[in-house]
Amino acid sequence: MSDFTLTRGDDGVALITWDLAGKSMNVMSFEGLRELEACIDEVLADDTIKGAVITSGKDSFAGGMDLNVLAKLRDAFDGSPAKGVFEGTMNLHALLRKIELAGMDPKTKAGGKPIVTALPGTALGIGYELPLATHRIFAADNPKARIGLPEIMVGLFPGAGGTTRLTRKLGAMAAAPYLLEGKTLAPDKALRAGLIDEVVAPDELLAKARAWVRAASDADLVKPWDAKGYKMPGGAPYTPAGFPTFLGAAAMVHGKTKGVYPAARALLSAVYEGALLPFDEALKVEARWFTKVVIEPTSGAMIRSLFINKGALEKGAVRPQDIPDQRVQKLGVLGAGMMGAGIALVSAQAGIEVVLIDATEEAAQRGKAYSESFMDKGIARGKATEAKKAELLARITATADYANLAGCDLVVEAVFEDPKVKAEVTAKAEAALGADAIFATNTSTLPISGLAKASARPAQFIGIHFFSPVEKMNLVEIIKGAQTGDRAIAKALDFVRQIRKTPIVVNDSRFFYANRCILPYLNEGIRMVGEGVAPWLVDNAAELLGFPVGPLQLTDEVSLDLGVKIAKATKAAMGDAYPDDDVDAVVFPLYEAGRAGRKAKAGFYAYDDKAKRLGVWPGLGAMFPLADAQPELAAVQNRLMMAQVLEAVRALEDGVLTDIREGDVGAILGWGFAPWSGGPFSWLDRIGAAKAVEICDRLEAAHGPRFRAPALLRDMAASGEGFYARFAPAEAA
Ligand code: NAD
Q: Looking at domain 330-511, does it have CATH number 3.40.50.1370?
């Protein structure tokens, strides 16, 4: 089956159509590249062809490189993965350069054949790098389309000439948001930003592109960087205008990435060094840096978790296979508080009809008003319209009457975290629901099997645990109770897919997976404050590991009263075995002093009137004096990292996690676990189990049994095995 086909037009213009059989979106494979090259060779060799339009047979152009192939690229060449990746990349450059120079005379630049791209829709990654090498980019006026280079988001950077071409097209400063942040734009904005050349009505796309090819002159085909006297927009590094840009960019990138993302640094080097060189040499430099990033273990781990496995989970990798489509038609949400209001919003956004119930009609209406103000903000920023808002609000019925739940095929309960209240609403809802409906609880701490006791049909009872704020956090933890049946799991997964979030499925236990791992992280940071470790050392140590927020700041964000509540409940459940008195010795006095966190504008940090975080609260030192001797940065980092990673290993050991892929994806999306590492299990594989055990032994001797290496980790250290090699061998790096 061919990815690219060439058809000749009567007007002398060839149409090269990219259309991967059996896929909804084109992605580039090595096979595809070979076919594209054959089409280009035919265009250039055949005198009866004047030029070509490259387009797609789908409503989008292309989603990018097939990263599954890329991930395997370095293994494909025995002995020297770097050589393999470099040569593969240079072959790609040669093809794109062939398109760009289009057979023109190297000296006079005459005689080339115009080759343009016509994008019916989304064009990402190589799907935009290929157009960048063509002579003109036409895009259909399709507001849903996205154009750009998102490679940096999965730990890569544009390595098919996109880095070099976009920098030379726009200048380093203007190209920065697209290269460094992976920002993508709809066609109209892409046109204004200079990413593409023309936006045309969809039904005129091919005609306009063909007409341009027919009329193009020799001069039209010469790229600015191939013309005499080319100067980089905004200035090259050693010019008065360019100097501050390049200097500032290095500082900005390091500030944002803390040096833990090799791709950002490599990208910047490719841009900087490339800007000092002729174009073809710059491509070679880009290829060298790209190779370095591809063979770096962190890139492999990031691609594996954030692209391959995240995508697989979203597509239903862990869904029970033999259950028919369970998409939700009508959703009931019980409790219109912070979580219920958010769940109603994201569901209505996905086109689902929602019945939002609270104890009173007013409370339910307040929950619905959250969607209203969310849409108002969108309208103010030009991202939504009054019509869209009306449509969305019309899908949400706010009420106190449970009879309205009739016809709901799924209910998500988000009332107070109190088993009695939850039991009461479960019974009330089930009385109004049809026999097939699935009932889900959004509890964050209460075991599902216990809550299911209130249900007359425990096989249809499940946990669907959202994170706050619901509309921003992409992970949803699905929790199986002891009696939860497969249809409930399928229903939960199909619902999560509808609202376009990423699911992981875990077994029932206290705090499930994400909260179970995040609490020890927060606690370890808090403990250190009690020991006299400088609070700024604690939070900076976390940020320098690539965590978005340190444990003290995060505690302020989630609030200390929640900490107090969880501590009391855990202590009540565990009795004398409760291990966190030293944490409570810090949290309780702060809470009692009115420092409940950001919402109280007072916590570990000081805040201004608008709740903007200032510095560490100056009074903290009086409550918890700094120790004379401060630990090394690495010692603080080991404690913060191991606190979470060991809990993830224990969750696997206990059978709460059944799949390390979910453990890695869930950690990154659920609590921002150092994304560069690919997740806790990928991180362990990177340092090796033996080294991890060595760190644990040291930490256990210094800080106690919470750092004792789990038996599973010791076992793996003894066998020399990695987690992926043992638990997901198909994906071991
Ligand atoms: P909230 O206090 O903001 O909202 C709870 C809502 O439930 C209130 O509007 C209340 O009026 C309503 N309610 C109480 N009793 C009711 C009844 N008998 N019938 C109908 N409505 C009733 O709480 P929240 O933060 O939205 O949390 C709700 C649930 O979600 C809890 O189980 C919580 O553990 C869980 N959760 C919270 C978070 C979070 O970060 N806040 C995250 C994940 C899960």
A: no
Q: From the CA of 443, give the closest atom in ligand 1.
A: 32
At the second CATH level, the architecture of 4-295 is: Alpha-Beta Complex (3.90)
Question: Are the C-beta atoms of residues 115 and 135 closer than 8 Å to each other?
Answer: yes
Assign 391 a pLDDT band (cuts: 50, 70, 90): very high
- Its pTM stands at 0.88
Ligand 1 centroid, distance to 581 Cα (angstroms): 28
Q: CA–CA separation, 234 vs 240, rounded Å?
A: 10
**Ligand 1 near 326 CB (within 6 A):** no
Of 259, 253, 263, nearest to 300 by C-alpha is 263
Residue 539 above 60 pLDDT?
yes
**Is there a contact between 173 and 245 (Cβ–Cβ < 8 Å)?**
yes
Measured from the CB, is residue 416 less than 6 Å from ligand 1?
yes
337 lines ligand 1 (CB under 6 A): yes
* C-alpha dist (Å) from residue 156 to 95, 312, 645: 21, 19, 25
Say whether 135 is catalytic. no
Q: Which of 135, 254, 465, 703 is catalytic?
A: 465
Q: Please tell me the predicted confidence (pLDDT) of residue 73.
A: 67
| Residue 326 Cα distances to 124, 355, 492, 507, angstroms | 31, 18, 8, 21
CB atoms within 10 A of CB 648: 29
At 298, the pLDDT band (50, 70, 90 cuts) reads confident
Q: Which architecture characterizes domain 515-633 according to CATH?
A: Orthogonal Bundle (1.10)
Beta carbons of 333 and 375 less than 8 angstroms apart: no
